[in-house]
Amino acid sequence: MTEIDAPRLERGMRTRRRVLGDAHVDRAEANKTDFDAPFQTFITEGAWGSVWSGDQLSLRERSIVTIALLAALGQDDEVAMHVRATANTGATREDIREALMHVAVYAGVPAANHAIKIAKGVYAEMDAAREGRETR
Question: pTM to 2 decimals?
Answer without folding.
Answer: 0.91
